[in-house]
Records
---
Amino acid sequence: MERLIVDARGTERIIRPFSPYVPEVPEGQKIVFPDKKQYAIDWRKNLTQLSEIYKTIKEAEIVQEEGIYRVPFSNPEIPYAVGFVFSDAHIGSYSSDHDLVRDLLETVLATPNGFLVDAGDTFDNGIWGGLSHEGIMPAYMQAFTIEDIIREFGEKYAACVIGNHPEWMFQASGVKPEYMFARQMKGVVFAGMGLLHLEVGEQKYDWALAHSFWGKSKKNIFNVCVNLRQQEYPDADVFTVGHEHIWGHMKEMVDGRERLYIRPGTAKTSDRYARIHGIAKRGQSMGIAVVFGAKERSFGAYSIEEAVKLQFLRKEIAGLSGIYRTTTEKPLL
């Protein structure tokens, strides 16, 4: 026991230190079995041990709330980078367009200064209801397929959000999906949502990513992006929300700054569930890329075709500029 002076008159009060003092367990709380050992429940001890276990689990997590990604420049002479938005691929479902998925991934690999940002539901993992009959590849093989994509992409896979479909793996078996496919990922893994701090050459941008968010509206498909900005990431530049298989992008000025909203679409373009439940006739094909300036601050959304053409045009111009500089240099004396 210790004494603490609590006022100017010198009044003392007895205090009990939090640790290591543990009071005796009252007799009424002791559980006694005939001819067996006696066990006493101590709630302080239990909560302390639970706190230690929580710390152990947190230290083993690979998901983050925020993360930094430095864009690798394969062609440093081009002062721009292209972020390809990949979302709701639902790999493994017969209702997904796997040709679209393959072509988009090949395009990212072939594009100078290109990188991939994944907004979730990368594999289908349809383990309940009618979705269990859509899978044409076992869920574990779907996860291993994503793992191999991540392996080949290496530093080009900037970020991945865990969506509701992969999360069913955790709900059904206790296995967190990121431990199945993202253990070796060099980019950032977000559980549901997160903030990606992009470093593009000399410039920095903040990209808020969420697989889903509240405030869904078919009359204003960007309402969820606005809510994500207002409620979670007020200082971000780009806001992407997947899940609804809707395609679109727009900019607005907020507090004197440009903000970019993106609904990335899907590869699940033949979706019986969506038709039956009156969500939409079909999913809208993903195909949005964001071009970021590396020397001067600029960012804007384009269709993938436009962004790729623009990047290769810049590569050609950079090559011609290099030839011009070489031919106009004075010979050494």
---
Amino acid sequence: MKTMPIRTPALWAMTCLTLAALCGGCANRKVPLTQKLIDQYNLTPSDLMQLQYYVSSEVKLANVSKDSDLTRSADALQFRKTRHERQIIVHKDLPGVAEQASRDRLGVSFEVGGNTFSFVPRGGMFYLSPSREEGSLWLFKYDGLDYYGKSAPLSNVYLLIEESGLTRFTKETKTLPGRKVSRSPFD
């Protein structure tokens, strides 16, 4: 049987959209980690450490160091300033794991090595939390250095989990019917 190539742009576009819709349904859906989900699935700190985490939006942090150097030569003094900037970027779809977990704080790591970002419950969801605040800047400790980020965009970063990760946690509920005192037939 001979197959016919798709010749019209409209038919080609329709085929691409259909394939995209079919493949999109296979992807893991990400949902915010909420206190309600934790309660609904009765998740323990140990359970929380088994989930796959993501951040809701990109996190950008910077560490800037400045040095100055004075060198003397036979006929002149030279003063040189240098500026070194290090950046940490956590992309939106970068997977992370919880290294520490409790009901009021999660420490999520996005690389091997023990560095974690703290997330705390606020308004029912778990939001990024700095080590400390300095005015409009948030300070984070990472690799022993202080990294700064602007609080405005960072205060809106919350944790997401793969919804499919919750399927291995089952909840069993039994609603009891109640009992009444049995009356004797002679009453």
---
Amino acid sequence: MSSTGAHPHPAHPHDHGHEHGHGHAHPPPPKPKKGHGVAIGAAIIGLLVAAVAGWLALKDGQKPEPTGLQLVAQLRDAAAGTIASPHVFGGALSVSRAGGHPAITAEGVPSKICVQIGWQLAKEGTVVVNGVFPQRISAAKLAELCSMNGDVATITWTVE
């Protein structure tokens, strides 16, 4: 050491004035957990498989199956003034007014989809299925009304 008390060598920027090897050793970094790596790897493989399957389906000219959520989105868009006819299942989509509120009618809705969306739309307005307004709505009543004309139904939703 010199007479000024300074160290003979300049300090390392991360040294903070401590000499190496004297009591302030840093613990080793934690080891990664093996379970997370396996889960992440499985998720990536799953996404890749789904992407390849989707690509192959589209490549072969198959369109993905439309969903009830897509039809509900179209009904909401129609209520807001944007009409996309035919709707995702190929039937007519029209808008009229009932008591000052938009009433959106979707024709040619598959019975199973009619039950799914009828329940959801009833929470946001009035639903008429195949010309019948159910006093009480239930899954059983929707299934009955949606299938009364066969495999397809007409559903009218009046936004409240």
